[in-house]
Structure formats: C-alpha cells, structure tokens
Amino acid sequence: MKKKNSVFLIITIPAFLLFFIFHSFPALQGIFYSFTDWKGYGDWNFVGLKNYLNVFKDERAGDAYLFTFKFAIVATILVNIISLLVAIGLNSKIKFHKTLRAIYFLPYILSILIVGFIFNFIFAHFLPQIGDAFGWEFLTRNILGNPDLAWIGIVIVAVWQAVSFNTILYLAGLVTISEDLYEAASIDGAGVWTKFWKITFPLIAPFFTINMVLSLKNFLMVFDQIVALTGGGPGKSTESISLLIYRGGFEGGEFAYQSANAVIYFIVIIVFSVIQLKFLNKREVEN
Amino acid sequence: MFKKMTAGVMALTLGASLLAGCSSDGADDGKVTLELFSNKSESIETYKGLIKEFEAENPDIKIKLDAPPEAETVLKTRLTKNDLPDIMSIAGNATFGELGRAGVLEDFSGTDLAKTVQPSYIDMINRLVGPEAEGTFGLPYATNANAVIYNKAKFEEHGLEVPATWDEFIASLEKVKAAGDTPIYFTLKDAWTGMIAWNSLGANVAGEDFAEKKNAGETSFMEKYDEVADKMATLVQYGHKDNMGVAYGDGNNAFAGGKSVFYLQGNWAIPEILKANPDMELGVFPMPVTNAPEQNKLVSGVDVLLAVSESTEHKEEAMKFAEFMMNKDTAQKYIDEQKAFSAIEGVYQEDPVFEGIKANFENGTITSFPDHYYPAGMGAENLVQEFLIKKDKEKFLKKMDSEWEKVQNR
C-alpha cells in the first residue's frame, strides 16, 4: 500500500505542478485583476465589483451570451446525433472499416483556421455558383454575409470538424459491448431499433455523458471558427463570448473588465457542466 | 468509468500542452535576430525585399518578419505579456496612441531621423498619443489616402467625368446603374472596408474636432452624423447583389476583372488590384462629400509608422534598421512598390494613377481619419456594418454614442 502511494505521488505531483503553474495560477490572476481597472499594462487600482455590475449592464455581452448558447446547444445536439450514427456505422462489419475510420478522423487533425478558410471559399464562391446554376435564390448570396444565416455557416463548419472526435469516443464505447447481448436479443426476436434503444444506448451511457459535456463545453468556448469565418460579423451577430473577451480585453484595453466577464463565464460553464453530469449520470447503467 | 475517462482525457490534454510549450528560438550563431512586426498583409513582399538588402549590408543582423492576422490585437496581447517586438511597423491609429501612452516605445523627438519627416505627420501621431505622454513615439513612414478608385476603361465607356460634388457623384452612379452595370463593388464582409466611405464622409461632414468634442460631451453622433448615415445608406444602394458576402481579397480581384466602375478603397488596394490585372488603367479621386467642391478634403493618415520597443535588448541594431528604412532610396522603393505616399520630406509619389489626388497633397486640402480617434474597443466598424444591413439610423447613432461612452467609462 505504501509503495503504491509513493508511485502515485511521483506521478501526480509534477502533473499537478504543471497544471497549477500554467493553468490555475493565471486563472487566479485573472480573478484578482477582475476587481481592478487594469488595462493590461501600466498602473491599476481596486474598483471592487464595478466590472461585474458593468457586465450585467452590457448589451454587447448579453447578445454574445445569446448567440453562444444558441450556437452551442444546436451544435452539441447535431454533433452527438451524427457522430453516434457514424460510430455505429463504422463499428459494423463493413469492408475497409479501418480505412474509413482514419478518413473520418481527418477533419479533427486539420487546423481549425485552415478549415475555416477552406469553408470561407466554399461559402463565398462555390455555393453561390451552385445557387446561380440551379436558380436557388437563397444560395446566390454568401450566407456568412447575412446576419440571420451566418451562424448556421459556423454551425456547419464546427459540426463537420467536431464529429470526428466524438465518433472516436463513441466507437470506444461500442467496442465495450459484448456481441452475446445482441445475439441473445436476436434470438428473442428484437429488431434493429429495439436493439439500439434497449442495449446499445443504455450501455454507452457513460460515453454519451462525456460526449455531451465535452462538446457543450467546447462549443460554448467557440472562437477559432468564428475568427476564420466571420470575425464576429456581420455587425455583431456572430460574436461569441470568447471572442468578445479576447477582442475587448486586448484590443479595447478592457483587460480587467473582460476578466470579470471571463470569471462570470467560467462560473456559467461550470454550472452547466455540473447540471449535465448530474442529470446524465442518473440514467447511466451501473456496469 | 467516468473517472477513468476523465483521467485519460486530462493526461492527453496535459501532454499536448507540454508539447506546445516546447518551441525553441533557433540556433544563435553570433547573429543578432530582430523581430519586425507588421500589421499589413499587403507589404509582406516589399518588406522581404528590403530585409534582404538590409541583411546584405549588415551581415551580423538577422530580421524576422512577422505579419499575423488581427495584428493589432496580437500586439496588445504581447504588450500585456511584456513581450513587444523589437521593431514595429504599424498604423498611426488608436492602438498606437495607447502604446505611446503606455510608455513602451522609444521616443524619437529631437532625433535626426524625426527631423526628416514632414512636421504635419509628426503632429498627427503626437495628437494620437495625446498630452498624457510627451514625445514622438514613432517615425511616420508611409501615408495613405482614402479615395474612390475607378476603372478608366469603363469610366469612358459610360461617358463619365470626375465628379466634384456629391450630387454629381450620385448622378454618375445612377447613370451606371441605369446602364445595367454595377456602380460600386462593396466588400462589406470585411467590416473595416465600410470605414473607407465612413471616414471620408465623417471627416468632411462632422468636422476634425469631433472626437475631442465628443469626449468632452459637447457633441454626439446623433447630432453630427445624421447626414453621414444617410449618405452611407445611399451609397450601398449602388452596390452589387451580395454587398455583405464578399471579402476584401475577393473584391480586389472582382474589381480588377472589371466587375464594377468604382471601388471605395485606399491607395493600399491599388498594388493588389494591379497584381490581379497588371494592364488595368486606374484613376482615383477624393470622394466629393459635399456640394461645395472647395470644401471637400482628402482623408489621409499615417498608414505605416516605425516604432522601436523601449526595452529591446538590441536597440542599436533596431535603430540601424530604422535608419535604413528612413533612407530616401529605401523610402522611395517602398512607396513605389506599395503605391503609398511618403511622410519623409522630399520623397514623392510620381505614379500617374494618383493624378486625381495630387492637388490635395500639394495645396494641403487634407484631413485625418476620424476613426483613428475613436476609443479602441468600441468596434465601430461592426456597428457600421450592422447599420448597412438593418438601416435603422436612429438606433445605430444612439448605439455609436452609447458604445463610445461605455468604453470611456470603464
């Protein structure tokens, strides 16, 4: 027991230190500065809760919250549906399933910025040409230039890229289910649909949980896709909270104010993740 | 189950972040490496050529050019980290003002280099820094002009004359539109391109002291910018089918391909257009904002200034590079390639393209960019972009006022 403990410590202490230096400490600094009027450089004074009160009065932050949540919820649902379907497909006995797995994983390896620029080209040139050719009026203009549709373009790109990672997690889950269960179910006369709802879905519940939590968290922090596709425009219609914090904090010299915004956002994300875990853990099967 | 997975995910991310932190600065072979930070994608090739020349003259100095997208935000980020580049080639705008006030830039006042610059541009950048910090924290290098660029072949085809008043300008746009052609090629997917027209209009309608008065609470967008907003909305009616969906780079190519008669851009777009179509005949004129021709001024600002980090370890070498850049031959080369104007006395832009705005430079009917004096972080270009989509003037002007005040009060 003693030996086990020391090994455990040797492994965890460096990891903890690194995490603290590069993650926790800057986060604590940010929390500290959120009570000041620091611009990112120069002198600063304590201003108490002024920054926090200003965030709640800030229309721009409100709009960013609305957009981010709309985006994150839609993208999370889409990603999980699509990646679960893809995973089930890749898990079945089809030809080339190893090659196909590699191909499906490719989007995840590409840099988001590069993907964004490629899709930018597709939205700006390729789709309008198709729209012109078929006479579809709604496609003849770049959807990223329309404040009501631009967010859909970002959802498409974000989902396309995120599906691969979640597919891998679902595949890992599907592998854990033993074939015997399906055979037994077949003997009892269960169809494909029944097998999915009664066996597959309950048994990969832990994976479903982690996928939901991770993808919602990631989509709430959406940043690169927006920088590459719209830069927050047209107008401010696709400005996510991360982008607002980054832009306002560095470009606008509102370091302290946006730190307060970041602290609030941190709390919001934690609350959402905890609620998700509580809710989803309830329905996990003890295995 | 869940705990195991979290541990796995944690270990993965930690490993990845460790790897990311392992970038080295390359081998040091007795050479001094300077970083030159530039905010312009257009001048990358020009700089590469100039750097080659400089390195040939100074074999013990190596210059690394860095021109990232969203350059100003990147620069602010680095300011926060106390990691300023040795030499900066940035625009004379609100961001420069902030850097100057932060006291992180070398003061050039009284140096021989600063004396070679036209005094009006030195004043311009000093005004950006404001009275809080005494000094000249950069060397104005290249200046620009906000103009209306036109396609000469198409211009003649439609039988147009260079307009001197707003009404004449609209009449020519109308004429082109009636002939079934596209008058102006807008590229409003990139919000900043909307500021070209906005600045020309604002400078001529709202006056030069708008920002000072606004900060003192003596005026407002509501009061001064009503006409500007109306005229902006009028101009957008003369665009193409997808004003909001085309970005700057694509716009340059489209205009070079003869897709429209007019193009509202600065001189910096001209090399880009000529890259796409080297034989194109271009002309420029200042946007005639009012109906009194003698009152129309050309908007020109400091497009590029050279600044040196105050805390750089290689100040001597950085100064050497600044001297090399300020040399008349180098300056001439820069403005010839970039189709810009020089802030250095005695260096002139002789390109025939600029026939239409030469007079403004000679008789001084020039005014500076209004938005360089807006508080940074107000995001004016996105607000203007939004207005051009929604066309709700009252709400937009109110928002401009409230955003300005909000940023001021933080």
UniProtKB/TrEMBL annotation, chain A:
Top-level taxon of origin: Bacteria
GO biological process, one term: transmembrane transport
ABC transmembrane type-1 domain boundaries: 65-276
Subcellular localization, as worded in the UniProt entry: Cell membrane
Cellular component aspect of the GO annotation: plasma membrane
InterPro entries listed in its UniProt record: MetI-like, MetI-like_sf, UgpAE/MalFG_permease
One protein family per Pfam: BPD_transp_1
Keywords: Cell membrane, Membrane, Transmembrane, Transmembrane helix, Transport
Membrane topology: Multi-pass membrane protein
Segments passing through the bilayer: 7-25, 64-90, 102-127, 149-175, 196-214, 262-280
Primary location class: membrane
Similarity field: Belongs to the binding-protein-dependent transport system permease family.
The protein's name in its UniProt record: ABC transporter
Organism ancestry: Bacteria, Bacillati, Bacillota, Bacilli, Bacillales
